[in-house]
Design a protein that fits this description.
The chain is built from 6 helices and 10 strands. The chain is globular, with a radius of gyration of 16 Å.
Length: about 180
């Protein structure tokens, strides 16, 4: 059975997006060489990717460009080569190796998890991650905690969400990467 992991950048108070929907705070100057190396290694783990429509469109618009290949060549190569699943009722995916989930989200993900292939990572796509978490389909959560407090916004957490710490890493830039197993 394939594992389902959620990878999300969150504020120190637990939000993936500000109340306005803004996510620029997650990428505003918070990086160092160690963090960049960790991102590159993490992206190269060979998972299939699962996106909601909005995140898919943002990722496709960036990772297919020559600029992405110059900025983060290993990540761009991995993103373009990865199998990508898209949860959308309106989008026809055009990025290479992309597949539209034909069924309703929860049943489609149950089917993917039961099938053969690499593990699956929900990348960003906070509302998709929240739905899958509420349905207890998520095996692991990997968060990059950005040392910014938003004071409100959108979260992947549902009431009663319990997690068990698996690993953590602190970076000089102040970001903290944590991996949790979903409590069963």
């Amino acid at each position: 059975m394939r594992k389902l992991r959620v990878f999300e950048s969150i504020s120190i108070d637990g939000y993936f997006a500000a109340t306005s929907g803004d996510i620029s705070w997650a990428h505003a100057g918070r990086a160092d060489a160690d963090f960049g190396e960790w991102i590159s290694e993490n992206a190269g783990k060979g998972s299939a990717l699962l996106f909601g429509r909005k995140t898919y469109q943002m990722m496709e618009a960036f990772w297919r460009t020559p600029g992405a290949a110059r900025q983060m060549p290993n990540v761009a190569k991995g993103m373009n080569a990865a199998t990508k699943y898209v949860a959308s009722r309106t989008l026809e995916p055009t990025w290479n190796n992309s597949h539209l989930l034909a069924a309703e989200l929860l049943s489609a993900v149950r089917e993917l998890k039961a099938g053969d292939g690499p593990d699956i990572t929900v990348l960003g796509s906070g509302s998709v991650a929240a739905q899958l978490g509420a349905a207890r389909l998520v095996d692991e959560y990997q968060f990059v905690i950005i040392p910014v407090a938003l004071g409100g916004g959108r979260t992947v957490f549902t009431k009663g969400c319990e997690l068990r710490l698996l690993e953590q890493r602190v970076f000089r830039c102040g970001n903290v990467a944590v991996t949790y197993a979903a409590a069963t």
